[in-house]
Amino acid sequence: MPQEEEYTSDSGSDFTEYWIDWFLGTKGNEYFCDIDFEYITDRFNLTGLSTEVNRISAAIDIITDNAKIEGQPAEVKEQLEYNARFLYGLVHARYIITQRGLAKMLEKYRNGDFGYCPRVYCKLQPLLPVGLNDSPRLQPVKLYCPRCEDLYNPKSSRHAAIDGAFFGSSFPAMFFQAYPHLVPTHPTERYVPKVFGFQLHEYAKLARWQAVQRQKTEARLYELGVPVDNCPGGYVDPQEGEEEPVKSAQ
Amino acid sequence: MPVNCTNLIRTRRISPRKKSKDRAQGVVEIRATRFLQKLTFGRVLTTANFCLLQTSPPIGAQRTLFLLIAMSKQIFEEDDLTSSEELQSWVATYCQLFGHEFFAQIPAEYIEDDFNLTGLAAIVPYYREALDMILDYDFDSEEETKPADKQSQLPLIEHSAELLYGLIHQRFILTKQGLGLMAAKFESGQFGKCPRVLCEQMPLLPMGRHDQPGKETVRLYCACCNDIYLPSSSKYLNIDGSFFGTSFPGMFLKVFPEVARMINNRTQNGQFELKCFGFKVNEVSASGSRMRWLRMRPQTEAEIAEYEQCEFGAPSEVDGSSKETMVSDDQSMS
Ligand SMILES: [Zn+2]
Ligand SMILES: [Zn+2]
């Protein structure tokens, strides 16, 4: 794997740097936040990880700059480095759903570090990383858009190769539970294919049915006393005049 | 294969507006030069030799031979860079530029047919010059009359040529031939793949939300999730959406019903649901599911029956009641 090579070639170059700083500065690791030292060194937070990570104590020492691995043979060094990165990822998934971790991820979210939703009607909504599983080595990380509530693949192949378990499946839900005011509104505007200004019949029909489903949700929420008009988690209709009038026919 | 000398100099059909004799002559020379540039010097010699032996009036052939050698010598002694650049037609060069991967190569015959250009003269500045540029017609003769003027206008004409090509492209990709060329690009994924996870790398189609140029850049349509996306690379940020137009994806779906099969395989994937430690987020919470409708498809019998009711408009019971009561109640609450 090309990424593996890059990690090892970069690592030896700067002795004065902290391991975490080096890790976060490596290209492709932009999604990770900086975990507090205290969090990593508290063994309570690592409960259960010793079954996932080989030689966990050595890995902790590397992350916390307590071990020099320069003298080791190349293969051993590489294995130790790999373990350290793997441990960092698994601890990261736990850390980002703590109060401090959420605050750090909030900053990254505001910076657009996880990219923006490619869907046109989401108007560059920032994304959040999410794993489809909590166990490592199953599926790579995906990006969640809170506006269209859908999942997207990361643009860059470096990001697309990161283990989803390093972020976990609960992160976006925890994030918006902590910051409910940041839940975006949902645009009701949608695309229907047209030919010479006329919507394709089958697609227009499906769109009408889907709009009925949305109105049902709105009605149900309204019954439950949940506001749904232009508030966090509510709906916004397309701005008047923005969409051209559509002729509905074949 | 023997190359006929007369074929070397033959040009393709010259459109009626190029009737002036000087102009036609200029075009003939340009075409001959281009053809020669495609051959290596050695091949020119052998070709010429062959012509000398084969053609019946030997003197005529000899003169052709000398003409060929003289021309080719002159060409090959010229700067290599400029000659190799001129090898390709404007259209081929334009479509191969960085970021122009979405464009299909429009055949010259389509562009030369004035019927296909109806109305474009009113939209595109320097229309005639731009068209000449696209078709690789030489405009030396005009340069003689007003050279300084022409030189300063060149960037403007180039810009107009790009605009004109884009607007012709919008029309061309709706023709049978254009759709065929675009289908090949679609199948090989040259327009990119849908970024949505559950669309499983569904190939995209380029489109614009407007048919008038200068309004918005190109967008990509996914037939699987029936949604439109921004291109993933910034190199498409300066490609005008109108160069693909609003009708292209719709036309594509109509002409190639097999796309529907690609969609059906993928819509079985279900939908993503936000979860917290394995539990669905409550609908009442702000981050609860609100956008399920967007990707829903009728599955159950009741849903299919409801869907059939949407044939010519939304069924009135659902449409009317919920919205209206909500609005009135909202006001009373505040
Ligand atoms: Zn989105
Ligand atoms: Zn899609």
Automatic annotation (TrEMBL), chain A:
SMART domains: CK_II_beta. It comes from the Eukaryota. GO terms for biological process: DNA damage response; nucleolar large rRNA transcription by RNA polymerase I; regulation of cell cycle; regulation of ribosomal protein gene transcription by RNA polymerase II; regulation of transcription by RNA polymerase I; regulation of transcription by RNA polymerase III. InterPro entries: Casein_kin_II_reg-sub_N, Casein_kinase_II_beta-like, Casein_kinase_II_reg-sub. One of its GO terms (molecular function) is protein serine/threonine kinase inhibitor activity. GO terms for cellular component: CURI complex; cytoplasm; protein kinase CK2 complex; small-subunit processome; UTP-C complex. Belongs to the casein kinase 2 subunit beta family. Regulatory subunit of casein kinase II/CK2. As part of the kinase complex regulates the basal catalytic activity of the alpha subunit a constitutively active serine/threonine-protein kinase that phosphorylates a large number of substrates containing acidic residues C-terminal to the phosphorylated serine or threonine. PANTHER family: CASEIN KINASE II SUBUNIT BETA. Tetramer of two alpha and two beta subunits. This is Casein kinase II subunit beta. It comes from Babjeviella inositovora NRRL Y-12698.
TrEMBL record, chain B:
It comes from the Eukaryota. Residues 323-334 have a biased composition (Polar residues). Coiled coil: none annotated. GO terms for biological process: DNA damage response; nucleolar large rRNA transcription by RNA polymerase I; regulation of cell cycle; regulation of ribosomal protein gene transcription by RNA polymerase II; regulation of transcription by RNA polymerase I; regulation of transcription by RNA polymerase III. SUPFAM superfamilies: Casein kinase II beta subunit. Gene3D superfamilies: 2.20.25.20, protein kinase ck2 holoenzyme, chain C, domain 1. Pfam families: CK_II_beta (PF01214). Residues 314-334 are annotated as: Disordered. One of its GO terms (molecular function) is protein serine/threonine kinase inhibitor activity. One of its GO terms (cellular component) is protein kinase CK2 complex. Regulatory subunit of casein kinase II/CK2. As part of the kinase complex regulates the basal catalytic activity of the alpha subunit a constitutively active serine/threonine-protein kinase that phosphorylates a large number of substrates containing acidic residues C-terminal to the phosphorylated serine or threonine. Tetramer of two alpha and two beta subunits. Belongs to the casein kinase 2 subunit beta family. This is Casein kinase II subunit beta. It comes from Babjeviella inositovora NRRL Y-12698. The lineage of its organism: Eukaryota, Fungi, Dikarya, Ascomycota, Saccharomycotina.
